[in-house]
Write a structure and sequence with these properties.
Strand order of the largest sheet: 1-3-2
Radius of gyration: 20 Å
Order of helices and strands: HEHHEEHHHHHHHH
Mean pLDDT: 92
Shape: elongated
Structural class: mainly alpha
Strand content: under 5%
Distance between the termini: 46 Å
């Protein structure tokens, strides 16, 4: 019964969340729980559970005698992976991808420089393994397999920086990389130059060359922005 409940409130979430982030319910809109019960044909308990999740993302606020109100966009938890996923699925995808890529451009080069100073031997091995995995899957339209190594590579960079704030952005970067692939904002095969840059970053980190690791990572993020100019203008 518990799994069924989770499935039901999950179904409500997967309808309401994308609708809110896409602007179908503008800020200030009031969601009536009785109407939602009828629309989704679920109990009040299920609706309340879904609303609690939306509240945790700061998408809505519940107030007695007012109801459930959609919050202003600037109050949303835009770092929540689920919110990112919903926004990337909507019509605002190009702007969202650009915003996330600017964030990556600001953070990842600095993280790579720190990783070159602080990465453990195990983290250096992980970086090299995933960089080579990217090379191995970069041809033959293997984007799903490539994505696994790409996400893992960038998670290691952020974690190896030794900065817990950067490390927590691993989920954010994972969502933008996944979103680019799932919504086909990628070339059929990854840019060979970008793949090579990842290998060179792994080498720079292993060799403790912080300046080179930072500069190479800046090239990667600049390339990602240039791809957006072509594929999601």
């Amino acid at each position: 019964m518990e799994n069924q409940g989770q499935g039901l409130h999950g179904r409500v979430l997967e309808s309401l969340g994308p609708a809110i982030t896409a602007g179908a319910y503008p800020p200030g809109s009031v969601l009536r729980t009785d109407e939602l019960e009828q629309r989704f044909e679920v109990s009040r308990t299920v609706i309340r559970e879904a609303i609690r999740v939306l509240e945790s993302m700061h998408l809505v606020a519940s107030r007695r005698r007012v109801g459930v109100t959609v919050r202003p966009t600037e109050e949303w938890n835009v770092y929540d992976p689920q919110v990112i996923r919903w926004r990337l699925a909507g019509a605002d995808r190009p702007r969202q991808l650009r915003s996330l890529t600017v964030l990556r451009s600001a953070v990842e080069p600095v993280a790579a420089g720190l990783a070159a100073r602080l990465a453990t031997a195990e983290q250096c091995e992980e970086l090299t393994r995933h960089a080579l995995g990217m090379v191995a899957t970069s041809r033959g339209q293997q984007l799903s397999a490539y994505l696994v190594h790409d996400v893992a590579f960038h998670r290691v960079i952020l974690r190896a920086s030794g900065n817990e704030m950067f490390a927590r952005l691993g989920d954010v970067v994972a969502e933008v990389l996944t979103g680019r692939t799932e919504h086909q904002v990628m070339f059929t095969d990854p840019d060979p130059a970008a793949v090579t840059l990842h290998v060179r970053v792994a080498e720079a980190v292993r060799e403790r060359d912080a300046a080179r690791a930072e500069a190479l990572t800046r090239e990667i993020t600049a390339g990602a922005m240039a791809e957006l100019d072509i594929l999601a203008p």
